[in-house]
Amino acid sequence: MQLPVTERIVKLWSAPDEVVFSPFAGIGSEGHEAVRLGRRFVGIELKESYWKTACRNLREAEGTLDNRSLFDVAAP
Length: 76
Known about the structure:
46% of the residues lie in helices and 11% in strands. Strand 1 (19-22), helix 2 and strand 2 form a beta-alpha-beta unit. The chain is built from three helices and two strands; from the N terminus they run αβαβα.
């Protein structure tokens, strides 16, 4: 999926600090945009090559944030 489309979807159906879940994560497009937009992400992918690509894409998205980790949890 193209990133601009994914960005719009993430913005429409989630708020900052919420978790975006993708049961078919593929190469991590939803995760990339979720992390970039201040959401947390949980994704599932069976195909190893897609999973590895998704990990790279998520690390790249995480690198655009200011000292924030994929594992940061918002305080209640």
